[in-house]
Amino acid sequence: MRPVKGMSELDRFILHRLSQVVKRARTSYDRYEFHTIYHTLHNFCVIDLSAFYLDIIKDRLYTSPPADPLRRDAQTAMFIILDALVKIMAPILPFTADEIYQHMPKSPDHMESIHLEPMVEPHEDWEDQVLSDKWENILILRGEVTKALEEARIDKRIGHSLDAALDIKLPETELKTQVENLTENLNDIFIVSTARLVDALEDETAYKGKEIQGLVIKVGKAEGQKCDRCWRFDTTIGNDPEHATACGRCAAALKKIL
Which of the residues in the chain have pLDDT under 70? Predict the structure, then answer.
Protein backbone atom coordinates (compact mmCIF):
# COMPACT_ATOMS: atom_id res chain seq x y z
CA MET A 1 0.00 0.00 0.00
CA ARG A 2 1.22 3.47 -0.90
CA PRO A 3 0.68 6.53 1.35
CA VAL A 4 -2.25 8.62 0.12
CA LYS A 5 -0.49 11.97 0.51
CA GLY A 6 2.24 10.87 -1.91
CA MET A 7 -0.15 9.72 -4.63
CA SER A 8 -0.75 11.45 -7.94
CA GLU A 9 -3.46 14.11 -8.14
CA LEU A 10 -5.82 11.84 -10.05
CA ASP A 11 -5.68 9.12 -7.39
CA ARG A 12 -6.18 11.63 -4.58
CA PHE A 13 -9.11 13.19 -6.43
CA ILE A 14 -10.94 9.88 -6.75
CA LEU A 15 -10.35 9.22 -3.05
CA HIS A 16 -11.87 12.63 -2.28
CA ARG A 17 -14.91 11.54 -4.28
CA LEU A 18 -14.94 8.28 -2.33
CA SER A 19 -14.97 10.24 0.92
CA GLN A 20 -18.14 12.01 -0.24
CA VAL A 21 -19.71 8.65 -1.08
CA VAL A 22 -18.87 7.28 2.37
CA LYS A 23 -20.36 10.30 4.14
CA ARG A 24 -23.54 10.18 2.06
CA ALA A 25 -23.94 6.44 2.61
CA ARG A 26 -23.49 6.67 6.38
CA THR A 27 -26.02 9.49 6.60
CA SER A 28 -28.46 7.54 4.43
CA TYR A 29 -28.18 4.44 6.62
CA ASP A 30 -28.90 6.55 9.71
CA ARG A 31 -32.06 7.81 7.98
CA TYR A 32 -33.03 4.40 6.49
CA GLU A 33 -32.84 5.94 3.01
CA PHE A 34 -31.67 2.80 1.25
CA HIS A 35 -32.62 4.07 -2.21
CA THR A 36 -30.12 6.92 -1.75
CA ILE A 37 -27.37 4.42 -0.98
CA TYR A 38 -28.18 2.49 -4.16
CA HIS A 39 -28.09 5.62 -6.33
CA THR A 40 -24.91 6.85 -4.65
CA LEU A 41 -23.06 3.58 -5.28
CA HIS A 42 -24.41 3.25 -8.82
CA ASN A 43 -23.44 6.78 -9.84
CA PHE A 44 -19.98 6.48 -8.29
CA CYS A 45 -19.27 3.19 -10.07
CA VAL A 46 -20.64 4.26 -13.45
CA ILE A 47 -19.68 7.95 -13.66
CA ASP A 48 -16.64 8.44 -11.42
CA LEU A 49 -15.01 5.03 -11.83
CA SER A 50 -15.97 3.44 -15.14
CA ALA A 51 -16.32 6.54 -17.32
CA PHE A 52 -13.45 8.47 -15.75
CA TYR A 53 -10.92 7.06 -13.30
CA LEU A 54 -10.64 3.46 -14.50
CA ASP A 55 -10.66 4.61 -18.11
CA ILE A 56 -7.56 6.72 -17.46
CA ILE A 57 -5.54 4.41 -15.21
CA LYS A 58 -5.91 1.27 -17.32
CA ASP A 59 -2.93 2.38 -19.42
CA ARG A 60 -0.55 2.56 -16.45
CA LEU A 61 -1.94 -0.67 -15.00
CA TYR A 62 -1.45 -2.60 -18.23
CA THR A 63 1.80 -1.10 -19.51
CA SER A 64 3.89 0.03 -16.52
CA PRO A 65 6.37 -2.26 -14.73
CA PRO A 66 4.97 -3.92 -11.57
CA ALA A 67 6.91 -1.67 -9.18
CA ASP A 68 6.22 1.59 -11.02
CA PRO A 69 5.07 4.19 -8.43
CA LEU A 70 2.09 5.38 -10.51
CA ARG A 71 0.94 1.81 -11.03
CA ARG A 72 1.24 1.12 -7.30
CA ASP A 73 -0.68 4.34 -6.56
CA ALA A 74 -3.54 3.16 -8.76
CA GLN A 75 -3.56 -0.30 -7.18
CA THR A 76 -3.63 1.22 -3.70
CA ALA A 77 -6.46 3.58 -4.61
CA MET A 78 -8.46 0.74 -6.17
CA PHE A 79 -8.05 -1.42 -3.07
CA ILE A 80 -9.16 1.43 -0.79
CA ILE A 81 -12.19 2.00 -3.04
CA LEU A 82 -13.09 -1.70 -3.17
CA ASP A 83 -12.77 -2.07 0.59
CA ALA A 84 -15.03 0.93 1.17
CA LEU A 85 -17.66 -0.07 -1.40
CA VAL A 86 -17.93 -3.63 -0.07
CA LYS A 87 -18.47 -2.36 3.47
CA ILE A 88 -21.10 0.11 2.29
CA MET A 89 -23.06 -2.51 0.35
CA ALA A 90 -22.78 -5.24 3.01
CA PRO A 91 -26.00 -4.40 4.93
CA ILE A 92 -28.16 -4.40 1.77
CA LEU A 93 -26.28 -6.96 -0.37
CA PRO A 94 -25.01 -9.31 2.35
CA PHE A 95 -24.18 -12.38 0.26
CA THR A 96 -22.65 -10.49 -2.67
CA ALA A 97 -20.56 -8.33 -0.34
CA ASP A 98 -19.28 -11.33 1.61
CA GLU A 99 -18.40 -13.23 -1.57
CA ILE A 100 -16.36 -10.26 -2.78
CA TYR A 101 -14.72 -9.94 0.63
CA GLN A 102 -13.57 -13.58 0.58
CA HIS A 103 -11.71 -12.95 -2.69
CA MET A 104 -10.04 -9.70 -1.61
CA PRO A 105 -6.32 -9.62 -0.70
CA LYS A 106 -5.92 -10.67 2.92
CA SER A 107 -4.49 -8.10 5.32
CA PRO A 108 -3.33 -8.98 8.88
CA ASP A 109 -6.64 -7.71 10.29
CA HIS A 110 -8.80 -9.51 7.68
CA MET A 111 -11.91 -10.90 9.37
CA GLU A 112 -13.72 -14.17 8.72
CA SER A 113 -16.65 -12.29 7.20
CA ILE A 114 -17.35 -8.78 5.92
CA HIS A 115 -20.16 -8.64 8.49
CA LEU A 116 -17.60 -8.66 11.30
CA GLU A 117 -15.97 -5.54 9.88
CA PRO A 118 -16.91 -2.06 11.12
CA MET A 119 -18.62 0.30 8.69
CA VAL A 120 -16.14 2.33 6.68
CA GLU A 121 -15.44 5.88 7.86
CA PRO A 122 -14.09 8.79 5.80
CA HIS A 123 -10.38 9.46 6.30
CA GLU A 124 -8.87 12.91 6.55
CA ASP A 125 -6.15 11.83 4.12
CA TRP A 126 -8.77 11.26 1.44
CA GLU A 127 -10.16 14.78 1.55
CA ASP A 128 -8.73 17.71 -0.39
CA GLN A 129 -11.32 20.31 -1.40
CA VAL A 130 -8.81 22.54 -3.21
CA LEU A 131 -7.66 19.61 -5.33
CA SER A 132 -11.27 18.62 -5.96
CA ASP A 133 -12.19 22.11 -7.20
CA LYS A 134 -9.22 22.01 -9.57
CA TRP A 135 -10.16 18.62 -10.98
CA GLU A 136 -13.79 19.61 -11.41
CA ASN A 137 -12.45 22.15 -13.93
CA ILE A 138 -10.28 19.48 -15.54
CA LEU A 139 -13.37 17.29 -15.89
CA ILE A 140 -15.16 20.06 -17.78
CA LEU A 141 -12.14 20.39 -20.08
CA ARG A 142 -12.09 16.61 -20.56
CA GLY A 143 -15.73 16.76 -21.57
CA GLU A 144 -14.91 19.38 -24.19
CA VAL A 145 -12.05 17.25 -25.52
CA THR A 146 -14.41 14.28 -25.77
CA LYS A 147 -16.77 16.35 -27.92
CA ALA A 148 -13.88 17.47 -30.14
CA LEU A 149 -12.77 13.86 -30.60
CA GLU A 150 -16.31 12.79 -31.44
CA GLU A 151 -16.54 15.47 -34.13
CA ALA A 152 -13.24 14.22 -35.56
CA ARG A 153 -14.60 10.66 -35.61
CA ILE A 154 -17.73 11.75 -37.45
CA ASP A 155 -15.54 13.58 -40.00
CA LYS A 156 -13.43 10.38 -40.28
CA ARG A 157 -10.24 12.22 -39.32
CA ILE A 158 -9.62 9.62 -36.61
CA GLY A 159 -11.00 6.23 -35.62
CA HIS A 160 -10.03 5.58 -32.00
CA SER A 161 -9.06 8.40 -29.63
CA LEU A 162 -5.50 7.02 -29.54
CA ASP A 163 -5.22 7.93 -33.24
CA ALA A 164 -5.38 11.58 -32.23
CA ALA A 165 -2.91 14.37 -31.58
CA LEU A 166 -4.37 17.43 -29.84
CA ASP A 167 -3.37 21.08 -29.93
CA ILE A 168 -5.20 22.90 -27.14
CA LYS A 169 -5.46 26.66 -26.72
CA LEU A 170 -6.85 27.61 -23.32
CA PRO A 171 -8.35 30.97 -22.36
CA GLU A 172 -6.35 33.17 -20.00
CA THR A 173 -8.20 32.00 -16.91
CA GLU A 174 -7.54 30.00 -13.75
CA LEU A 175 -8.09 26.85 -15.80
CA LYS A 176 -4.99 27.53 -17.88
CA THR A 177 -2.83 27.82 -14.76
CA GLN A 178 -4.36 24.65 -13.35
CA VAL A 179 -3.69 22.66 -16.51
CA GLU A 180 -0.14 24.01 -16.87
CA ASN A 181 0.61 22.92 -13.29
CA LEU A 182 -0.88 19.45 -13.64
CA THR A 183 1.29 16.60 -12.46
CA GLU A 184 -0.66 14.23 -14.70
CA ASN A 185 0.15 13.68 -18.35
CA LEU A 186 -2.48 15.23 -20.64
CA ASN A 187 -2.17 12.23 -22.97
CA ASP A 188 -3.40 10.01 -20.14
CA ILE A 189 -6.27 12.26 -19.07
CA PHE A 190 -7.65 12.60 -22.58
CA ILE A 191 -6.62 9.08 -23.72
CA VAL A 192 -4.87 10.29 -26.86
CA SER A 193 -1.40 9.70 -28.28
CA THR A 194 -0.31 13.33 -28.07
CA ALA A 195 -1.71 16.43 -26.35
CA ARG A 196 0.02 19.77 -26.07
CA LEU A 197 -0.87 23.29 -25.01
CA VAL A 198 -0.35 26.08 -27.53
CA ASP A 199 -0.53 29.87 -27.19
CA ALA A 200 -2.13 30.48 -30.58
CA LEU A 201 -4.34 28.35 -32.78
CA GLU A 202 -5.88 29.53 -36.03
CA ASP A 203 -7.85 26.78 -37.73
CA GLU A 204 -11.36 27.06 -39.14
CA THR A 205 -11.99 23.35 -38.59
CA ALA A 206 -10.89 23.42 -34.93
CA TYR A 207 -13.39 22.71 -32.19
CA LYS A 208 -14.60 25.79 -30.28
CA GLY A 209 -15.44 25.35 -26.62
CA LYS A 210 -19.13 25.12 -25.73
CA GLU A 211 -18.79 25.30 -21.94
CA ILE A 212 -15.35 26.93 -21.80
CA GLN A 213 -15.36 30.22 -23.67
CA GLY A 214 -12.14 30.87 -25.59
CA LEU A 215 -11.15 27.20 -25.72
CA VAL A 216 -9.94 25.94 -29.10
CA ILE A 217 -8.99 22.31 -29.81
CA LYS A 218 -7.43 21.04 -33.01
CA VAL A 219 -7.67 17.29 -33.55
CA GLY A 220 -5.13 15.82 -35.95
CA LYS A 221 -3.67 12.45 -36.78
CA ALA A 222 -0.88 11.44 -34.40
CA GLU A 223 2.58 11.06 -35.90
CA GLY A 224 4.57 7.84 -35.89
CA GLN A 225 3.51 4.22 -35.83
CA LYS A 226 1.13 2.36 -33.56
CA CYS A 227 2.78 0.62 -30.62
CA ASP A 228 1.79 -3.05 -30.46
CA ARG A 229 1.72 -2.92 -26.68
CA CYS A 230 0.00 0.32 -25.60
CA TRP A 231 -1.64 1.17 -28.96
CA ARG A 232 -0.42 4.75 -28.86
CA PHE A 233 1.14 6.29 -31.94
CA ASP A 234 4.77 7.24 -31.31
CA THR A 235 7.82 8.27 -33.30
CA THR A 236 10.17 6.18 -31.12
CA ILE A 237 8.88 2.83 -32.37
CA GLY A 238 11.72 0.80 -33.85
CA ASN A 239 14.46 2.58 -31.89
CA ASP A 240 15.03 -0.48 -29.70
CA PRO A 241 15.97 -3.52 -31.84
CA GLU A 242 15.01 -5.90 -29.03
CA HIS A 243 11.45 -4.58 -29.08
CA ALA A 244 11.07 -3.27 -32.60
CA THR A 245 7.29 -2.84 -32.50
CA ALA A 246 7.16 -1.12 -29.09
CA CYS A 247 7.42 2.58 -28.32
CA GLY A 248 10.26 3.87 -26.16
CA ARG A 249 8.11 3.87 -23.03
CA CYS A 250 6.97 0.27 -23.53
CA ALA A 251 10.45 -0.90 -24.53
CA ALA A 252 11.83 0.47 -21.26
CA ALA A 253 9.02 -1.24 -19.32
CA LEU A 254 9.63 -4.56 -21.07
CA LYS A 255 13.32 -4.48 -20.11
CA LYS A 256 12.27 -4.31 -16.46
CA ILE A 257 9.60 -6.99 -16.78
CA LEU A 258 11.31 -9.62 -18.93
Answer: none
